[in-house]
Amino acid sequence: MTRQLHETTTNIFFLINILGSYEVSELLNSSFRRAVWYPSKVLKGSGNENGRRFSVVAKIKKGKKHDYPWPDNIDPDIKDGYLTYLSHFKPLDEKPKPVTLPFEKPLVDLEKKIIEVCRMADETGLDFTDQIGSLENKYQQALKDLYTHLTPIQRLSIARHPNRPTALDHILNITEKWVELHGDRAGYDDPAMVTGIGTMDGKSYMFIGQQKGRNTKENIFRNFAMPTPHGYRKALRMMKYADHHGLPIITFVDTPGAYADLKSEELGQGEAIAHNLRTMFGLKVPIVTVVVGEGGSGGALAIACPNKLLMLENSVLYVASPEACAAILWKSSQAAAKAAEKLRITAQEHFKRKIADGIIPEPLGGAHADPVWTSQQIRLAITEAMDELTKMDMEELLRHRMLKFRSIGGFQEGKPVEPERKRNMKPSDASMLNAADIDSDLEKLKKNILEAKVPSDPITEQAIEKLKQDVDKEVTRAFISMGLQEKLESLKLELSRATDNQTVKRNLKVKADKLMQEFKQNLSRPGAYLGLKQKLEKLRMVSRLIELKEKGWKLKNEINQRIPPEIKAKLEQLEKAQANLSKGDLLDKDLVEEAIKAKKELIEVLKSANLEIVGVAKRNVADAAPELQEKIVSVKKEIDGEIERVIDVAGLHGKIEELKAEMAKDSSSPKVEQLQTEIREGIRAALDDTALKQKVENLRREFASSLQADIDDKVTAENGRW
């Protein structure tokens, strides 16, 4: 070093003698900037015109000292622990914040009470030992009851707990020595897959596991324990290494699944998993797998083809997550609890079906309640399994592994298989009805509204309320899918805090109008949100119909109040006469005249109420539709023909002729009424009118429906018009 510095100094003075001090200064300055890419002036040269004075100033940037992968001084005599400089996994600077799961809220209340009593004891100095002991006993009992009867979805939430110990936590707790190994020998090292060699009870093992993060920063670095193809090839390299050196393999499964982005698929994610599956069945060393969290699909299975599969008490193993399963089968992730139960994802279900070979107990509250104790239970289970497997030779190990997987599942022989089995699955879009269903529901609501005899019908109100709730849910989903939910929540918060300031209200109104305009613009896209559009249109039509119905009721009450009792009595008599006429009785002429008079009086009453008479609906056959007119004519001909037949059979032609002659003389004579009664009774006695009555009744209903539809279309009650 001294010799090189001496030679460099000699060369610098040689250049000074040849070029002069100023030129050398500029040359050194520019060359140094090019060498180290330093933007400021690192070398400063100064000299007079004669070149007799020269000085050099150099600034050297100190490099950052790093402890990865190798420190400056390595202790060659290390006896235990692990080489921290070979791992990114370091103790956390801060203790993880406690996280309360939704089903644990009853325990939180008890914890708050215990803390409150302890605080009171500290502040007052009084003895609350009995109260604290009683509350702690209640807490322990509630904790035991809660964790003894966990549902599958609750166990899934425990397996995903943010503070649950990770694979490296367990490895560091159960090993005396540990060194992490990196790389897939292809230029990549996936941090989501950790591998290394560790010792337990003086024996060396190859550890492979999927590593989750302990906080957001670590989760991003570990890719939330979703390995890429590089991670599976890294695990494959370590398996082959262990197989070559005769090291038993221990794998820890804790992943929601393999990473399924475009880059991973391009790099051969499926091929990497398949290669691992094939290779693991041919490894000649014992393999034990422990599911410490969640094991998702092929991403978990790629390191889980062992001789012994062990699962922590609250771990889960599934082919598809309950949320994904619910989205496929029930078209909603809200059915995840139902899917978790149907999928049989828990350790207890897997042990019952001989997929798992053992269940490792966890402390009450989950593995995160006491990670060290949980790790020791894992160590005991692994040691017991390894003691059994190490007694087998190579052929027995391979056959044992093969038979384990061949025994999974059930088989039926001699039973015919259905060529096609239909599944009772939910429609593709639960919230979207087809056009026929929309029209059917709308017709039912319309019929209920029109036939209601009171302004508010409970059944109709219930149907409309349900429709409004469905629309609210659809609108909320639409806001979320459009990415407008945050804006909506922000606007709601501003509205709740708004004062009586008119400027603030105007600004909020502008924001609300802008948000609604953006929502309507997204909603108006062709083919988008069809279910919501149909329900909005349906709700709009029903609201309009209810509005018209309410106006009709209001107008009817107003008219009824203005109609004198005498006119009401005449109208009631007219209705009774019409009922008698339908039965075959003759209509009284005086009553007809009174009805005409009542009609004129009613028109005068309506005019006095500032209502203009636009038109009057008449119950006339001519008002019916052409198809209905043809039916009426046909039924009339049939009735006339039947009456003629009865007259012939009963021999009433003579009496009819006699009636005609008497009516020509005096239509009001008693003889006329007597003959009419005899003829009517004779026809009724010989006439079988059951079929005719049914036809007439059906025809009357059709005519009434047609007339009501015509009234709905032609009669309005707006702006004082009737």
Structural description of this entry:
The protein is of the alpha/beta class and 722 residues long. It is built from 27 helices and nine strands. It has helices at 2-19, 21-36, 105-124, 129-148, 152-159, 167-174, 216-222, 229-245, 262-266, 269-280, 297-301, 322-329, 336-343, 347-352, 371-389, 394-406, 435-451, 458-482, 485-497, 502-523, 530-562, 565-583, 589-608, 626-650, 653-665, 670-686, 690-714, and strands spanning 81-82, 177-181, 193-200, 203-210, 249-255, 287-296, 308-312, 316-318, 358-360. Strands 1, 2, 3, 4, 5, 6, 7, 8 and 9 form a nine-stranded mixed β-sheet that branches. Helix 6 crosses helix 15 and helix 19 packs antiparallel against helix 20. The longest helix is centred in the last third of the chain and has 33 residues, at 530-562.
